[in-house]
Design goal:
Blueprint: H1 5-11, H2 20-37, H3 43-52, H4 62-69, H5 79-98, H6 103-113, H7 125-136, H8 141-150, H9 155-166, H10 173-189
Helix pairs in contact: 2-3, 2-7, 3-6, 3-7, 5-6, 8-9, 9-10
Length: 195
């Protein structure tokens, strides 16, 4: 984390919405685990992209975030989903320019952030890592406790949704293994077979 603490600090104010100050560090942890498994991946690109991938939610009204971005019928294709990606591209470019990153690197980050939720495919191994890490945090007890409220579901119902709807979206076999292991632990910890 020390290597990227300057990115976290530069983006900190943008993380104070939608529990991104919890979601992003946990997703970052998963990204680092996946980066270790894929030495051919550009580590800086994947790590910095996961830190910045959701900062665009900062630009959206919080009521709209939840009503349109999580609870509407076709929430994955809602306008706020596209807006948080485009705002994430804009804000990440400002942050990275301020930290003297090259235009080429900034564009690579933008390519990952733009479409990380709405695009149905990954464009690179780094994109796969970011997309999977973005989802893997949900399988933890913390992720379930936060995200079940976003979707207005009980923890048990949300855990079922993770198993049926989210695991099939993961790209990497290591991500699937982590998700299944974490989901089993979370189900047990939250007594999902009872509550």
């Amino acid at each position: 984390m020390q290597k990227y603490s300057h990115i976290f600090k530069a983006a900190e104010k943008y993380m104070r919405v939608r529990k991104n100050d919890v979601h992003i560090p946990i997703s970052y942890h998963y990204a680092l685990k996946l980066i270790e498994k894929y030495p051919n991946a550009e580590a800086d690109l994947a790590a910095i992209s996961i830190i910045l991938h959701d900062i665009g939610w900062y630009s959206i009204d919080e009521d709209d975030i939840f009503k349109k971005g999580f609870q509407s019928e076709n929430f994955m294709q809602s306008d706020v989903r596209y807006l948080h990606e485009s705002e994430g591209v804009r804000l990440s470019a400002e942050i990275l320019k301020g930290l003297d990153y090259s235009e080429e690197f900034i564009q690579k980050v933008a390519t990952i952030i733009d479409g990380h939720d709405t695009r149905s495919f990954a464009k690179s191994i780094e994109d796969e890592i970011v997309r999977d890490a973005d989802k893997l945090w949900r399988f933890t007890a913390t992720g379930v406790s936060v995200a079940c409220d976003w979707f207005k579901q009980t923890p048990a119902k949300y855990c079922n949704r993770l198993g049926t709807d989210i695991i099939p979206l993961l790209h990497l076999p290591e991500s699937v293994e982590m998700a299944k292991a974490d989901l089993a632990e979370t189900r047990q910890l939250l007594l999902c077979d009872i509550l």
